[in-house]
Design a protein that fits this description.
Layout (H helix, E strand, L loop, with lengths): L9 H4 L9 H9 L6 H9 L4 H6 L2 H6 L4 H26 L5 E2 L13 E2 L3 E2 L13 E5 L6 H22 L3 E5 L15 E2 L3 H15 L5 H7 L4 E6 L5 E11 L3 H4 L6 E3 L2 E5 L4 E7 L2 E3 L1 E4 L2 E4 L11 H23 L9 H10 L12 E6 L4 H4 L3 H6 L3 E4 L4 H4 L1 H6 L4 E4 L10 H8 L5 E5 L12 H19 L10 E7 L9 H13 L5 E5 L2 H15 L7 E2 L4 H9 L4 H4 L3 E5 L2 E4 L2 H6 L3 E4 L11 H10 L5 H6 L12 H14 L6 E8 L5 H11 L5 E5 L6 H13 L10 E6 L4 H17 L9 E8 L12 E4 L5 H17 L7 H7 L4 H11 L8 H15 L5 E2 H8 L12 H4 L7 E6 L5 E6 L2 H15 L3 H10 L10 H13 L14 H10 L2 H12 L4 H13 L4 H14 L4 H21 L7 H35 L9 H18 L7 H12 L5 H6 L8 H9 ...
Parallel strand pairs: 1-3, 2-7, 4-5, 15-16, 15-19, 16-18, 17-18, 19-20, 20-21, 25-28, 25-29, 26-27, 27-28, 39-41
Antiparallel strand pairs: 5-8, 6-8, 7-8, 9-12, 10-11, 13-14, 22-23, 24-26, 30-32, 31-32, 33-34, 35-36, 35-40, 37-38, 37-40, 38-39, 40-41
Helix pairs in contact: 2-3, 7-8, 12-21, 18-19, 28-29, 32-36, 33-36, 33-37, 37-40, 40-41, 41-42, 41-43, 42-43, 43-44, 43-45, 44-45, 44-48, 45-50, 45-51, 53-55, 55-56, 56-57, 56-58, 57-58, 58-59
Length: about 1500
């Protein structure tokens, strides 16, 4: 029989299936509905309405049975709500029941514990146990209507609380936990709580309303506020549901020996004659609850099992005893202070025994973590300091409200899915894409990124386990992380209680990769989480993981312990200068985002505790200088850092000079011989200027330059927004190519423009530190400083003083070879002695000797090359240990260890390496190994290429292959082509042991079997050195197979054929070539020509792709054009050796006519008096007639094409291309032979008709012009620069007079060229009478502009029109003036169309600038400007680059400064016509950066084939 003391009401006993309700339950349900009288409930009962029939009822049925409209609608609405609610809640029963779990820690509110949906609490509902261990009571709370929930909650809590207080037991009542029979006992269901505060407020009111006044305070102390425990879905995502829990803690000090009644209001009903009504009066009744089994029972409720009040009296009698027992249990449970050593264990394990994170044995950390709680996130600062290489995060909501969001707000992370780690290409290429050693790689291992759906525990292994295994396998590869020198840390935020939990599977995967647990550390939230974790691992692997676990420390204690292992310097805030002595905090997130830069802060190294002795030793031995070396030199007791002679010059002269430039980015070069301290000087300059600049070093020269530019500008604008107060000084060390520096400079300027940075002075200074073998060939300029391998007397004195200090603090100063070489002023005898003594007893068969030999070869032929420590350990058989005490790599090198220095390599993967400590030492060691121990360069190269250990999976493998390939392939290009046919290594092997180079190259091909460049190298070797053209063709063909779309590879194939042809021609010793030989030679020539034509087509495709996608600034590969011209010249030489064309001038002229297509072979044969003798020749010629007829036309087209490039496009400022110089010299040689044939035809011998004399004059004039390249506008313009004598220019003008007067139809090209000739002649010889008056030229120009213009002539014509018609004075009609703007616009369009294939990596040449005078004199040729500067070519380039050329005396008087207004990224130039402006582009867009629209500027105008440009904008 149910009583009031039972906590389960009838409503909660209703079945989830409404169809199973009895008619009694239906009646009871109806009685509880607000607004429905009892009589209507009785009607339902009388009509036998049970659950099944209730479902079928509608409003009409109810009204027919006598229920009025209002109650009928209420009943139907309530029925529908119940059905909907029961349908929703029934899903709990159908869901898979989860595993057991612990209840939320008792009397705790800020723990990270959460329930998982459908899991089962592993404690039953119970009565008092030991008074302190809490009893539990579960309430489903899911069937309770919303309007009744608060009343249900408060009444149940009050009853349960009173029962616990009277029974003196701790207890927890749970709302949202299911019970039998509908659910599994203890099943986590959860309820949706929209207003948590309302629960607390309602409970407070209920306490005040139900407890006696004298006990209200005690009740409030014992009844704790509601706790809302979040429920996670099965896939670990957050749900909207919570379990509402209330803890009861009846402490003895509060309850003493009191007992507690609760007052329960009871509604009574009063009957009238016709109806029963609610009485508004309430009858409060006392209740006395105690815990009885799994429920709370009222001892004052009526019962048939005992005398009324007896149980109550008995309980009160034993209450003092209960209170005493409670007190005793509380005293027992007082925690004994337990001494723990887990803090020191954590320090030991996380550093590998060094007890310092600054000197940790572990170079990298990998974090594995599961669902975190907001409370835990407050104590995870140590993760930022560990800077993990990767985090494997199993929380699918980490990015929204978890760990990734928390860390991502403070540091830069790269987010990934496991699929991103799948090996689809080279390991190091994947690592580079992932930015693996640049930023923390955050891997979402259970969805939560890019719409990846999370999985529950049971489906995770099948759905996502394989891809996470890929991640772990990738990270554990030797190429990625250094073996035994990384630590995997499991941060177990949420208790792992399932054997199939993803963290257990992940632990398994790491264990399989690592083989041992010494590289694993587990940090658990608490002891309970640890026990679950330990037991699961022990059950699966029979491994006791306890010794690798931390569980007695809270995360706050873990955080404090780890952070305490940092040096003061690492813990300190870092600051950047803002100028004027002000500073700004350099946020770690921002610093992390500048992954390509090593930023030098104003307080760099302050408070540091680095190992001074070790750092100084590495530096003095020859290692790279670090900021620590500069910092140590400023400390008390130290002598100052050695100041080189050029130090003050750079700081006091070079940088101030550059600061006057108006470009956003300027550069100065520090060119130095390897090993002479160039990089050290550059770092010293940065250190000295760290208060005046924001200084940084580019860490990786192979980084994407666009990204670097963005990072540089981000550093510039950090906390400065649009108007930076202090510029950036960026050190670039060891770029191979000056063009890369120029590329970076352009990217920075573009980024400044994009960011609209306001400034009138440079914002970024690039200090380009580059190696050179000799400074003799480099000219010193304002921004180029040279450092060679000789010290001044002042510098030598400083080195002497420093040596005294070194010898006081270091016992082994005699092995500081890097320092001593400079102190000895690079004395060769000293270096030879070091090499000889150190290498004494060298044996190439010993492992460490082999390794030192390889390092020496690498350093000599690939400056700065190194071997990773991991690779050296593998090769030497050293076994690193995963904790303290691993052997030093130096020990493995034995007595050769004094020759090596440690370094850090910033490559696709960052790693630590060793290198030969000085380039001079390396060179002399190589000589010593050869002369004393008979080990040749070829032997070492073969050792390096054939030893598989060097190329197995290990760190630095990719960098080593890159360096080896570079040694084999990279040539030092110069104008002496014979000296640079092969790399210095190959040339050195040839010089030392001719013939062995072939074996080295063959071994290279085996090592780099898929490398087209190595195949190309073999092809070049065989056709250049061995003259084995068949072998060369095979290698060239293999190279083409590997790189089908590469024009340079295709060029090698064509070059093989060209050289085979050349060799065949040279081998012909006879004066006359036989027909069979002629056929063979022409066949080779035709094949070579077709090959070069293919090269040109591929080059055009490459160039168009670069133009469209802006991939790089590589210029067009013109080798196909030049090769075709070279073959044509050889064809001419071949034909000269045939008897047909060998007969003096007649044969010469006939060959010219034939190759021009003016006469056919049949005509030639017909008029040949010896045609019978020559029949075999004619048969051969007919086989190649198309090839021969078009030879001149195609050759001329290629010559003009190249000439157009060379004249109108120049190298970017600061860049030089020796290969282009070689190509131009070769073109000149070929053109001379072309002229000898095609421009010296004796037309008088061919044309006997005297009536054709005028035509003859025109033909002779055209031949003359073609021979002087004056038949094209570019050739005529070039006369201004190539030293053409004035007399020759006048003769050219006269030839055009002949053509224009005697031609029946003068073409537009001739007229345009004639105008060019007049302009050029006026500039070369102003006093000449041969050129037309200026107005006549203007009239001719206007006439040409008004006529039909061929497409090919548009661009050169508009160039003239803009230059000559620019609105400077009123002599020209307004109509023509207004057309100039149209011409400018059309020039840009035409330039893009005509020059897009050739303009990449080039700048349009400024041919003229606008001067102050009138007429022809308004055009000031650029040569006049450069001549006024009176400087060498290097200095001219320098003056151009830093804008100083415009400040040279006399130049400003020559040029006209034009005014205009800024309009976004262009300038509207003022003209002599009011309100008429012309839009022109600035030469350097950054000079407009930050200028407001409409602001006034002045500038000079330079005329180029791309249109006019604004120069020297002020």
């Amino acid at each position: 029989m149910a009583t009031q003391g039972e906590t389960k009401n009838e409503e909660e006993d209703l079945s989830a299936d409404i169809n199973k309700w009895t008619k009694h339950q239906v009646k009871q349900w109806a009685l509880n509905l607000d607004g429905v009288d009892a009589k209507f409930a009785d009607m339902l009962y009388q009509q036998d309405i049970n659950g099944a029939s209730l479902v079928l009822l509608d409003r009409a049925d109810l009204m027919d049975s006598g229920v009025t409209l209002g109650p009928a609608k209420l009943i139907i609405n309530a029925r529908d709500k119940v059905m909907k609610l029961r349908k929703e809640q029934s899903t709990y029963g159908s869901n898979q029941i989860g595993r057991t779990c612990k209840p939320y820690p008792f009397h705790r509110y800020h723990d990270s514990y959460r329930y998982r949906e459908n899991s089962i609490l592993d404690v039953p509902e119970s009565s008092a146990l030991d008074f302190v261990e809490p009893c539990h009571e579960y309430k489903g709370f899911i069937h309770t209507p919303d309007e009744n929930k608060m009343e249900k909650f408060t009444s149940e809590v009050i009853r349960f609380a009173a029962a616990c207080m009277n029974s003196r037991t701790n207890g927890t009542i749970h709302f949202g936990i299911g019970d039998m029979p509908e659910f599994t006992h203890g099943q986590v269901l959860g309820v949706i709580v929209t207003d948590r505060e309302a629960y607390g407020n309602a409970l407070q009111r209920a306490v005040e309303g139900h407890f006696e006044h004298k006990h209200i305070s005690a009740a409030k102390s014992c009844i704790k506020p509601p706790r809302f425990v979040t429920i996670l879905n099965q896939d670990m995502t957050s749900s909207e549901k919570s379990v509402v829990e209330v803890d009861i803690v009846p402490s003895f000090i509060i309850c003493e020996q009191n007992h507690y009644h609760i007052l329960q209001s009871k509604k009574t009903k009063k009957k009238t004659k016709n109806k029963e009504t609610d009485d508004i009066g309430e009858k409060p009744s006392k209740q006395f609850f105690v815990r009885d089994g799994s429920s709370s029972r009222d001892l004052l409720a009526p019962t048939t099992f005992a005398k009324p009040g007896k149980e109550y009296a008995d309980f009160l009698e034993k209450l003092p005893q209960l209170s005493q027992l409670r007190q005793q249990e509380e005293e027992k449970q007082l925690k004994v202070v337990r001494s723990s050593v887990q803090g020191s264990r954590l320090s030991q394990m996380i550093t590998g025994g060094s007890q310092s994170l600054d000197k940790s044995h572990f170079e990298q950390y990998v974090i594995v973590t599961n669902k975190s709680h907001p409370v835990q996130l407050e104590s995870l600062g140590f993760l930022l300091e560990l800077n993990p290489i990767a985090v494997l995060d199993f929380d699918p909501e980490s990015a929204d409200n978890g760990l990734q969001k928390h860390i991502g707000e403070q540091s830069t992370v790269s987010t990934h899915l496991p699929v991103d780690y799948k090996i689809t290409e080279a390991i190091e290429d994947i690592a580079k894409k992932l930015k693996l050693t640049r930023n923390t790689s955050w891997v979402f291992c259970n969805g939560g990124l890019k719409n990846e759906v999370p999985s529950d525990i049971d489906s995770w292994l099948m759905g996502k386990g394989a891809s996470v295994r890929d991640v772990i396998s990738f990270l554990c590869r030797k190429e990625v992380l250094p073996q035994k020198r990384y630590l995997v840390i499991f941060l177990i935020f949420s208790t792992v209680s399932e054997k199939s939990d993803p963290l257990i599977e992940t632990f398994s995967m790491f264990l399989q990769e690592l083989k041992v647990t010494e590289q694993i550390l587990c940090i658990c939230e608490n002891e309970n989480a640890f026990n679950c974790w330990k037991d699961l691992i022990q059950a699966r692997y029979t491994i006791d993981i306890s010794h690798r676990c931390i569980y007695e420390l809270s995360f706050a204690q873990v955080n404090g312990t780890i952070c305490s292992l940092l040096s003061e310097n690492r813990r300190a805030c870092r600051f950047l200068s803002c100028g004027g002595g002000s500073k700004v905090l350099f946020e770690k997130k921002v610093e992390g985002s500048l992954s390509s830069l090593d930023v030098l802060c104003v307080n760099q190294c302050e408070g540091g505790s680095e190992d001074k002795v070790h750092i100084e030793e590495n530096f003095y031995k020859g290692g790279k200088v670090s900021w620590w070396n500069l910092y140590f030199s400023e400390q008390p007791g130290s002598t100052p850092f050695i100041k080189r002679d050029k130090f003050d010059f750079i700081i006091d002269t070079v940088i101030p000079e550059l600061n006057t430039s108006r470009k956003a980015c300027v550069q100065f070069n520090l060119i130095h011989v390897p090993g002479c301290g160039g990089t050290t000087l550059a770092m010293h300059i940065l250190w000295a200027l760290k208060d005046k600049f924001r200084c940084a070093v580019l860490k990786d020269c192979n980084a994407d330059l666009a990204d670097v530019a963005q990072q540089v500008v981000k550093l510039l604008t950090f906390k400065e927004e649009k108007s930076p107060q202090i510029p950036v000084l960026l050190l670039i060390d060891d770029f191979d190519d000056i063009n890369n520096v120029i590329d970076l400079k352009e990217h920075i300027e573009k980024e400044c423009v994009r960011m609209d940075i306001k400034s009138r002075s440079p914002q970024v200074f690039l200090l380009n530190c580059m190696r050179t073998e000799s400074v003799d060939q480099t000219e010193t300029t304002v921004e180029t400083v040279l450092i060679d391998n000789s010290l001044s007397e002042a510098e030598q004195r400083l080195f002497e003083q420093k040596l005294v200090e070194i010898e006081k603090t270091h016992k082994n100063a005699e092995t500081f070879y890097g320092f001593m070489i400079m102190k000895k002023n690079f004395l060769p005898e000293y270096i030879q002695g070091v090499a000889r003594n150190t290498l004494k007893g060298f044996d190439i068969h010993q492992k460490h000797a082999q390794l030192i030999a390889v390092l020496v070869l690498l350093e000599v032929y690939c400056k700065g090359a190194s071997l990773s420590i991991s690779l050296c350990e593998e090769f030497l058989g050293l076994q690193p240990k995963p904790c303290c005490g691993s052997g030093r790599i130096e020990d493995g090198f034995g007595k050769f260890s004094t020759l090596i220095a440690r370094c850090v390599v910033e490559d696709k993967v960052r790693f630590e390496a060793v290198k030969i400590m000085h380039s001079s030492i390396a060179l002399h060691c190589l000589q010593e190994i050869n002369t004393t121990y008979q080990v040749k360069k070829a032997d070492i190269a073969n050792l390096l290429l054939n030893t598989d250990n060097f190329y197995e999976c290990t760190q630095g493998k990719g960098k080593l292959m890159q360096d080896v390939r570079k040694m084999l392939v990279k040539r030092n290009h110069s104008i002496h082509e014979e000296d640079t046919q092969f790399s210095p290594l190959i040339q050195g092997i040839v010089s030392e042991s001719r013939g062995l180079e072939e074996m080295v190259l063959q071994n290279a091909a085996k090592r780099f079997e898929k490398d087209s460049i190595i195949c190309q190298l073999l092809a070049r070797y065989y056709y250049l050195k061995r003259k084995d053209f068949e072998e060369a063709k095979q290698w060239a063909l293999q190279a083409k197979r590997l790189s089908r779309e590469n024009s340079y590879i295709a060029d090698t194939s064509a070059q093989v054929m060209k050289h085979e042809l050349k060799n065949a021609v040279l081998s012909q010793k006879e004066d006359s070539i036989k027909p069979s030989v002629l056929s063979s030679l022409l066949h080779m020539a035709q094949s070579a020509t077709e090959g070069f034509q293919e090269v040109h087509q591929l080059a055009r495709k490459e160039s168009e792709h670069r133009f469209l996608h802006k991939t790089d600034n590589s210029p067009l590969n013109t080798s196909g054009c030049l090769g075709e011209i070279q073959v044509a010249v050889m064809v001419i030489e071949i034909l000269k050796k045939t008897s047909i064309f060998s007969l003096g001038n007649v044969g010469h002229d006939l060959m010219g006519q034939l190759l021009s297509g003016k006469i056919k072979i049949q005509q030639l044969e017909k008029h040949d008096p010896r045609h019978n003798k020559h029949m075999a020749y004619y048969q051969v010629l007919r086989e190649f007639e198309d090839f021969l007829y078009n030879l001149k036309t195609k050759t001329k087209r290629q010559i003009d094409f190249l000439e157009n490039i060379y004249v109108n496009l120049g190298p970017r400022l600061g860049s030089r291309d020796s290969r282009e110089q070689v190509a131009r010299q070769e073109l000149l040689r070929c053109f001379k032979q072309y002229v000898n044939l095609f421009c010296k035809i004796d037309c008088a011998d061919l044309l006997k008709n005297k009536g054709l004399n005028f035509m003859l004059q025109v033909e002779k004039a055209r031949q003359f012009l073609e021979a002087r390249k004056a038949d094209t506008h570019s050739g005529i313009l070039n006369c201004l620069s190539n030293g053409t004598p004035p007399e020759m220019m006048e003769k050219i003008a006269r030839q055009y007079d002949v053509i224009l007067k005697n031609s029946e139809e003068v073409n537009v090209t001739d007229k345009i060229n004639y105008i060019y000739v007049n302009v050029v002649l006026s500039r070369i010889k102003p006093q000449s009478r041969q050129y037309l008056q200026y107005q006549c030229i203007i009239d001719l120009l206007k006439k040409v502009l008004d006529g039909q213009i061929p497409l090919k002539d548009n661009l050169p014509l508009y160039f003239l029109a803009v230059a000559l018609l620019w609105p400077q004075q009123s002599l020209i009609s307004p109509e023509n003036l207004r057309n100039v703007g149209k011409y400018v616009s059309q020039m840009r369009t035409l330039y893009s169309a005509a020059m897009k294939e050739v303009c990449n990596g080039k700048w349009p040449v400024v041919h003229f600038l606008m001067g102050k005078k009138q007429g022809y004199e308004r055009l000031v040729h650029i040569a006049n400007i450069e001549n006024s500067a009176s400087a060498g070519q290097e200095k001219i380039s320098s003056l151009w680059e830093n804008d100083k050329i415009w400040k040279v005396d006399g130049i400003e008087e020559l040029l006209c400064r034009v005014t205009g207004k800024v309009k976004r990224s262009v300038i509207l130039a003022d003209t002599c016509v009011p309100d008429f402006k012309i839009e022109i582009n600035p030469m350097f867009r950054s000079q407009l950066s930050g200028r407001e629209n409409g602001s006034k500027v002045s500038f000079f105008i330079g005329f180029t084939i791309k249109g006019p440009f604004a120069i020297d904008i002020e």
